[in-house]
Amino acid sequence: MKNWKKYAAIIGVIALLMIFCLPMYFALKGDFSQKQFMASLFTVLFVAVMCYVLLMLFKYLNKKKEEQQVAGEIKNVIFDVGKVLVDYDWESYLDSFGFAPEKRERIANATFLSSVWEERDRGLYEEEVYLKQFQELDPQDAEDIEKVIKGSGQTIRKRPYADTWVKYLKSKGYHVYILSNYSSYMLDHTKKELTFRREMDGEVFSCYANQLKPDAEIYQTILNKYQLKPEECVFIDDRPENCRGAQEQGIHTICFKDFKQVTADLEKLGVK
């Protein structure tokens, strides 16, 4: 606190003490009138109420100031892709094959629900290696697994608001980026759905970085690659663990549930 604020606070405290002592002064003096006493008493009550009101007003204005300061920090919006800008509906896709329930469950566990699917996004090996790993998890359905994997680009559909949202943010002066766990095979087979990539100021896909969210390295990769300050970024992802990973790197985060919710949360950060 600056010196003038300290002096003002000291003077204010002294003035308040003098006012609160008025009733006691008149009572001890002994020659006060009832009107003097009541006036001093009401003065004390009025000052107390006004002090409380001013304190609440100060807290409110200070909170607004802090919110504006936070809002002013955001310059970059970083998007996850799956379930944020596109739908990832592997279940309907798998249903389209008409497999018997038991077989469908086996294939789901060997592909979309397996750890291989997640690791495939890291992009360390050629697609044939991952296909073989999928098949090894369910050898009896190897032929059908190959069909499922080769057509898996059909699980991705661009959401109606995706292009408009990204263009709108750019029109408001924000820089927009992608940070997504995505395999090279899926990128090659979903290009027509990812038209918003043309508007991006930059992108980091896990398959090219050979890193996965929520590991700290991939967040540092996008920050370093585009020279971004974490406090000036907000990251939008549908998975809480990925949001926590970004938070640990000092990045503002919003866990995506639906478009209305995320736009409201962006407004709280001043992104309108």
From TrEMBL:
It comes from the Bacteria. GO terms for molecular function: hydrolase activity. Keywords: Hydrolase, Membrane, Transmembrane, Transmembrane helix. The keyword Transmembrane helix applies. It holds the Pfam family Hydrolase. Its EC number is 3.1.3.-. InterPro entries: HAD-like_sf, HAD-SF_hydro_IA, HAD_sf, PGP-like_dom2. The chain crosses the membrane at residues 7-26, 38-58. SUPFAM superfamilies: HAD-like. The keyword Zinc-finger does not apply. This is Alpha-D-glucose-1-phosphate phosphatase YihX. The lineage of its organism: Bacteria, Bacillati, Bacillota, Clostridia, Lachnospirales.
